[in-house]
Amino acid sequence: MTAHFYSIWPALQPYLPAQGWIVAFWATIITVVTLRFTVDYLSVRRRWRAQFPEPSLITENAQFETVRGKRLRILHLAHPDGTDVPLFFFLHGVGSRIAVWEKQVERLRKVGNILALDLVGHGESEEVSSWEAYTTESLVQDIIEGIAPYTNYRIVVIAHSYGNCLAIKLFPHIQASVAGMVLIAPGDVTHPPHVTRLLQFPEWIIEIFRMLDRYGGTESTSVRRMVYKTADPELKELQLFWNESSRTSVFRRTMLGMAWVRSDDFRAITCPLLLIPGEFDPIHPVPCSYAIRECVGTKQVRIVVGHQVAHQVMLEKPDFTNTEIMRFVEEECNLIHFTEH
Questions:
Q1: Are residues 37 and 170 in the same domain?
Q2: pLDDT tens, residue by residue, 248-257
Q3: 163 domain residue, yes or no
Q4: Residue 2 CB-density burial (10 A; 0-12 exposed, 13-18 middle, 19+ buried)
Q5: 64 and 43 housed in the same domain
Q6: What is the SS3 string spanning 102-149?
Q7: Are residues 45 and 167 in the same domain?
Q8: Distance between CA atoms of 202 and 197, rounded to whole angstroms?
Q9: Based on the domain organization, do 46 and 75 belong to the same domain?
Q10: Do 85 and 79 touch, CB atoms closer than 8 A?
Q11: β-strand partners of 183
Q12: Distance between CA 36 and CA 93 in Å, rounded?
């Protein structure tokens, strides 16, 4: 398509105004690039679904519900013991989805109830054009409404990356129901997300930079910042597909709508906290967790570092993550009467 355009361009120039050809040239380039990325995006989504289908545990049990005018996908797995056992509530980060919690859901559903959702524009939830819908405040309000029917449970919030920010902001609204919080790859007040001027550019320009970021495939910077170099090759492939299928429009709106946690937000936390940073996480390094403990108070915060992992701790070391969550819930949250089903 691009080659054909260049072949006919000289013939078009005489019919354009003296300066108008410059505008027309760049308008055409933008159109071609936009169409190319649209085709690539749809192709990637089809390829992702075919090669890495979501776990049947999620697809067969998740339901779509209308939350504050948006169609969100919500996963609820009820335990036979009902409110006698905890509710594990999962919050993913930017560009992520329920599926990142597959191994945790498989393990923890045996001892408790499960609740998780795809944030607006993420996973299979509806993408809306409103910028306000992607602000931190709006996302928290979505979560409050989504979790409202389950506040009679003893809730253990399990969050990752930006999901930690949402969890901290959520806490005052459901404080009476929260038995504990698990923050995986948490960022403190000194490490808010690095939002550069790049996000102010048109989406097609951001798409180009994202494509360059993925240069190298499974060994690209895009993948390396999420999973460590020694990660399983299949996990690297999965992470690459997740990165490719993440919508730039949603990423841009979510990042620009962020209101990161402040010291006062951390100080308001009164429940036990388990922090699980990744040893080689370039996004939220280990010192962030110790800064959080200093802010909240050393007595109620437990830190366990995941070794030889980057940002996706729960994906790279699922058994380690599950074991630490179970130990925390039993020892710190006073929820010790587990019966596996």
A1: no
A2: 899 999 999 9
A3: yes
A4: exposed
A5: no
A6: HHHHHHHCCCCEEEEECCCCCCCCCCCCCCHHHCHHHHHHHHHHHHHH
A7: no
A8: 11
A9: no
A10: yes
A11: 159, 275
A12: 28
Which amino acid type is present at position 148? A
* Separation of first and last alpha carbons in the chain: 58
Stronger pLDDT, 245 or 157, i.e. the higher one? 157
**DSSP 8-state assignment for residue 306:** B
Collapse the DSSP code of 19 into the 3-class scheme (helix H, G, I; strand E, B; otherwise coil) and give the result. coil
Residues 66 and 38 in one domain: no
Same domain, 87 and 153: yes
Alpha-carbon distance of 218 to 230, in angstroms, equals 11
Going by C-beta distance under 8 Å and a sequence separation of 6 or more, which residues neighbour residue 90? Answer: 98, 101, 104, 105, 114, 115, 116, 158, 159, 163
- DSSP H helices, 177-317, are 203-213, 221-224, 233-245, 248-256, 263-267, 287-296, 313-316
- Sort strands 113-117 and 155-160 into parallel, antiparallel or unpaired: unpaired
Angle between helices 162-174 and 136-147 (to 10 degrees): 60
pLDDT in tens, 92-121: 999 999 999 999 999 999 999 999 999 999
State how far the Cα of 240 lies from the Cα of 226, in Å rounded to an integer: 10
User: Tokens in use for 15?
Assistant: 């019919």
The letter for the amino acid at 297 is: G
Which CA distances in Å does 28 have to 8, 56, 102, 128, 207? 12, 43, 43, 27, 17
Q: Does residue 205 sit within a domain?
A: yes
How confident is the model over 306-320, as pLDDT tens digits?
999 999 999 999 999
Q: Retrieve residue 112's tokens.
A: 């408790």
Number of folded domains in the chain?
A: 2
Question: pTM value?
Answer: 0.85
Residue 111 CA neighbour count, 13 Å, CB half: 17
Residues 104 and 142: their CA atoms lie apart, in Å, by 23
Residue 110 and residue 29 share a domain: no
